[in-house]
Design a protein that fits this description.
Blueprint lengths: L7 E4 L5 H11 L1 H13 L10 H6 L2 H13 L3 H18 L7 E4 L5 E9 L5 E7 L35 H4 L11 H9 L8 E5 L3 E6 H4 L4 E5 H7 L2 H11 L1 H4 L7 H42 L10 H23 L11 H6 L2 H5 L9 H5 L2 H15 L3 E2 L5 E2 L5 E2 L37 H12 L19 H10 L4 E4 L4 E4 L11 E6 L13 E2 L2 E2 L1 E2 L4 E6 L2 H5 L6 H16 L8 H4 L13 H22 L2
Parallel strand pairs: 4-5, 13-17
Antiparallel strand pairs: 1-7, 2-3, 3-4, 5-6, 6-7, 8-9, 9-10, 11-17, 12-13, 12-16, 14-15
Helix pairs in contact: 1-12, 4-5, 12-13, 12-18, 12-19, 21-23
């Protein structure tokens, strides 16, 4: 069974939902075994020797006692005192030494910090920031709270001499009392020259974990203390400790457990991208053969030998890349393109809605051979290319009621509607798919395609899982894209049988070999590919999309690993832009022209954009002091 994560909110996919639900427990198996051994060997009365999840759960009684006192308490000072009495034992159970102090921020203001873990040079690795206690029984997001004057009372600046009288070092100015903590952390704490990697934001009901590398996308983990400590579920406590404990975030030696989780989640994303390569290749064959069937049987236009196999291949690729783009963009609403917050779009037009049909049994001929999915997908492609409301070349906006307005940006009521900016790219241009635009794909075929794109291959995994497109980055998508560039589509001029090397298993992504029926007798059984007990045959006239012979070597279509692009781009740019603004001011970076002469999926170009953006940001902050 998966870990029970009730009370832990994974906002904006701090880790992928699938990773937390299905993979995390496996990654913690050794850790849990160590805890079980520690629990057996320790004396239950010796709290310091108890496993960390038991130590945290053991604080439940004190936590709820202080919570009740806090509900009845009046006065800001008293309430703050009770909150610190509530939080201190919890933080200590999580391995943090509570020593409240004031930390100077990038903008010169001061921030109360309950605890800090530092590197050997004294710079912070993690800071625990206290939000003021919530008012009444309502749960308040600590990131939306503002600091109070009481939080500064009695606290010394970080490097103040402890022997100096408090009145000489007490901070009464430069206190961000009118700014939400989220902004204080973003512009002050994370903007330091040597910022902490992690920040824990705490109040009487929540702990929020922020990772500086994920915070720009507002990805965070939120821990609801009432839920976690009230239920005292062992799995939930273990997951909480694994994600929050000092040994997980800032161990004395080696990599942090959280970095290990990130690496394993990345590996899982790589595995997902591998599944997509198989799914895309099979899907291209499916829609290619469906196109041939429709043109021959419905339109009575062309037989396969009158079609251009290269054109069909290109259009099928483009069709599948359209779907891949939409799967990705709908899974990443923070990118601001697909209006996933609109019920009208989500329930009426989105690809996500069609994913719900992936396992529906099509029992009637009408359901199998109808075109509902096709029309839905085509409508979605049109919405993306033309925008909604639709924008014409003259700039007028047509709203579907016969009226037009002159400006797409004109404000109007957004009630029960949504807006999509037109994406006039080659990818969605209907003129780029003239052959497929004559075709209607049957429900049965497109359902198979959506199923392939939505669910992992059960033959390659122990269980069938839903593909999480939010887990994929540009580099994983690039790997999928470039892997298929070296494949080619062709028509079987006769019945073709697939063969392989003796002792090898068939891999649809590997080099394929085909022979006619007359040659099949020359091959032993272990050199023939079988399917359902009979030799796998591609019937005459069928469309095959495979890697044949030495095509991959000749096409030079190899995806460049991220570690290599990062290194090469780093040192190439270093020669051009130097180390800081003295070598090249921030604004000069914006005037650079970047050319990638051998662009496949844009791995080097994407990396150059990322590194130039980071260099610009750092230099602009240094130049402006903001």
């Amino acid at each position: 069974m998966a870990l029970d994560l009730t009370g832990i909110q994974n906002e904006n996919e701090f880790y992928t939902s699938y990773y937390l639900r299905e993979v995390l427990e496996k990654d913690l198996k050794d850790e849990f075994a160590d805890w079980a051994e520690q629990s057996t060997a320790s004396d239950a009365e010796e709290e310091d020797s108890r496993p960390p999840h038991e130590a945290l759960g053991g604080r439940s009684g004190d936590y709820f006692q202080k919570s009740n006192e806090l509900l009845d308490a009046t006065g800001a000072g008293r309430r703050l005192q009770l909150q610190r009495e509530l939080l201190t034992p919890l933080l200590r159970a999580l391995g943090y030494d509570v020593q409240p102090m004031l930390k100077k921020l990038r903008d010169g203001r001061w921030l109360p910090v309950l605890s800090q873990v530092t590197r050997p040079d004294g710079t912070p690795k993690l800071c625990v920031v206290e939000a003021p206690p919530a008012e009444g029984e309502e749960t308040t997001d600590p990131l939306e709270q503002k600091l109070t004057a009481q939080q500064y009372e009695g606290l010394r600046p970080e490097h103040a001499d402890p022997n100096t009288a408090l009145s000489d070092v007490e901070v009464t100015e430069d206190r961000p009392l009118d700014t939400e903590l989220a902004e204080v952390i973003t512009k002050g704490l994370f903007a330091l020259d040597e910022p902490p990697r992690y920040v824990l934001v705490v109040n009487d009901s929540q702990i929020v974990l922020l990772d500086r590398t994920k915070w720009s996308e507002k990805r965070l983990l939120r821990f609801e203390l009432d839920e976690i400590l009230g239920r005292k579920d062992t799995d939930t406590l273990k997951a909480t400790v694994s994600l929050l404990h000092r040994e997980s975030t800032c161990p004395e030696d080696g990599f942090s457990l959280l970095d290990t989780f990130d690496e394993n989640a990345h590996k899982h994303a790589f595995a997902v991208s591998e599944d997509l390569k198989y799914a895309l290749r099979e899907s291209i064959e499916l829609i290619g053969n469906e196109a041939i069937w429709y043109l021959q049987e419905v339109r009575k236009e062309k037989t396969y030998d009158e079609l251009d196999a290269e054109q069909l291949t290109t259009e099928c690729l483009r069709y599948m890349y359209r779907l891949l783009f939409l799967f990705y963009i709908e899974a990443r609403p923070e990118l601001g393109y697909a209006p996933m917050d609109s019920d009208e779009y989500l329930n009426g037009y989105s690809l996500e809605r069609l994913r719900d049909l992936e396992l529906v049994n099509l029992t009637t001929e009408e359901a199998k051979n109808g075109y509902y999915i096709h029309h839905s997908v085509e409508k979605l492609f049109s919405l993306v290319f033309n925008g909604y409301p639709e924008v014409e070349a003259n700039g007028q906006v047509h709203r579907g009621n016969g009226q037009a307005t002159a400006d797409f940006g004109e404000e109007e009521s957004q009630h029960h509607t949504f807006r999509i900016e037109p994406l006039r790219s080659h990818l969605f241009d209907p003129e780029r798919t003239p052959l497929l635009d004559k075709v209607q794909f049957r429900n049965e075929t497109l359902q198979k395609v959506i199923r392939l794109m939505s669910l992992s291959d059960p033959d390659r995994r122990s269980s069938r899982e839903r593909v999480s497109y939010a887990a994929l980055g540009i580099n994983q998508l690039g790997a999928v894209y470039e892997a298929l560039l070296s494949y080619s589509g062709f028509f079987a001029e006769e019945d073709l049988y697939e063969v392989k090397e003796a002792g090898e298993s068939r891999d649809p992504l590997d080099v394929a070999y085909f022979v006619g029926e007359g040659e099949l007798d020359d091959y032993a059984d272990d050199e023939i590919v079988f399917e359902d007990g009979t030799p796998l045959v591609h019937e005459k006239g069928s469309f095959i999309y495979r890697l044949a012979g030495r095509e991959r070597e000749e096409s030079a279509s190899y995806y460049t690993p991220e570690v290599l692009t990062e290194c090469l781009v780093k040192y190439s740019l270093k020669e051009l832009i130097g180390e800081d603004s003295d070598d090249m001011p921030a604004d000069d970076i914006l005037d650079l022209t970047v050319c990638e002469p051998a662009m496949g999926s844009g791995a080097f170009l994407n990396e150059a954009v990322d590194q130039l953006a980071e260099a610009y940001l750092q230099r602009k902050q240094e130049e402006t002091g903001e």
